Amino acid sequence: MIHLVVRWLSVSLLFGWFLSVGLLQAQTGDLGYTLRWAEVDDPRVAGYRVYYGVEPGHYLEMIDVGLETTHRVTGLEPDTVYYFTVSAYDAEGFESSYTPEVTSGAFRYLFGMGGPFPSDGGWVEVANASLLQEQRIKAAAPEYGGGSGEVRVATGDLNGNGRDEVVLGFGPAPFGQSGGWFRLLDSNLAHLAWGRVDWDDYNATNGETYPAVGDLDGDGKAEIVIGLGSGGGGMMQVFGYDAGGLVPLGWTALDWPEYNALSGATRPALGDVDGNGRADLLVGLAAVEDRARPAGGDPAAFSETGSTPIPGGFFFLKRGIDLAGSEDETMRDALANRLLLEREITTGSVSWGEYARQLGETWPALGDLSGDGRYEIVVGLGRGGEGLFEVFQYDAEAIVSLGLGALNWPEYLARNGEMRPTVHSRRGAPGQILFGLGAGGEGRVEVFELRYGDWENVDSFELWPRQYRMAEGATWPAVKLESR
């Protein structure tokens, strides 16, 4: 009696040209998807079976394809998201376990959640393109997540296979524990690796991590940038990933001693603002109490006397980060690593001066909102920002405002008002901005599109479960691409 366990069998859903053909055929009711998988090198294999259905993990249809390793499933509904898997079987009918599931959806939504589940280590909700809940992923071990339970989500293609992997960052470590952790999930959302910031002192005193993912060197494989919280000295660590695991590549920093001494938190986002095929680094800043802003809005204009010399409403764009690095003696002594230099750094600031003079925190995102392949800059305002956000464009070494938008929800604006953006770049169409909300946001995610020259709130949806929405309610959205 033989029971096949084909652990090395892998299946991938072909997109690109095949998906385009399927979408064209959808008008005549003949939508199809082609699946291909690696042949199992085992003489016992007598054939393969393709399973599919309209709910994750539940397959109502089965097709025996014999020894073929490619099969096209046809006769599908054009507006339905399907889930596929494959198994192998032997001559006696014994069957292997399923391969990792693939979906016909071009993307998934991921939502990081904070309290009231901190003792469980935080969670990530996963939904398909139709907002059908697929699963809830436990983000971290309970002993680590017990501090705040916050989970920050970033996505990008780490291995160049056309599907996004996921990087999870976490809030401050619980009292008496050391943080600095982040976690990688594979494209099928299985656990891939744990990573940690190489700075013991920071990990012991705060340890929160803000991840961003993007291809800094244009090789088709994304890098990871980890921003730090208060006490982080304006530092961000850069990592690569290969089959052997995470590879520390160096550090990049904000050269702003006054801000770094009072907060030093960095909130990174990555994307290609100039269309050269390499990601640029956008950095938002945290709130600092009792800030003051000089006339002219130039951070360099702060003096050593008088008003507190810290920024308000500023963000920074670093272009051309060189992963070859530069051996800086001071940085090497302090952090046992190299400092990565950028070709250019440009300062931007939000238009609302009163907000900038008070707290002035900035939540950054990058994405293709116009559909031209170049990424725009989105900056959400923080607590007290009245639900405002501003969109910018990089143009000839300058950052130019394209206009503001706002959330119209008076109750939330009175409680908090924080807007945490991510951009859903859509092929051949203008992008959308998804905003996660801060504490008191009732688990809502707000969606904005540019319509007739104004940013319109076109959709709003809530996370699960209800007790989370009514308690903490903070959200950290991301979009995971399943094909490129």
From TrEMBL:
PROSITE patterns: FN3 (PS50853). The keyword Signal applies. InterPro entries: FG-GAP (IPR013517), FN3_dom (IPR003961), FN3_sf (IPR036116), Ig-like_fold (IPR013783), Integrin_alpha (IPR000413), Integrin_alpha_N (IPR028994). The keyword Nucleotidyltransferase does not apply. One of its GO terms (biological process) is cell adhesion. CDD domains: FN3. Keywords: Glycoprotein, Signal. Residues 20-109 form the Fibronectin type-III domain. It comes from the Bacteria. Pfam families: FG-GAP_3, fn3. GO terms for cellular component: integrin complex. This is Fibronectin type-III domain-containing protein. It comes from Thiocapsa imhoffii.
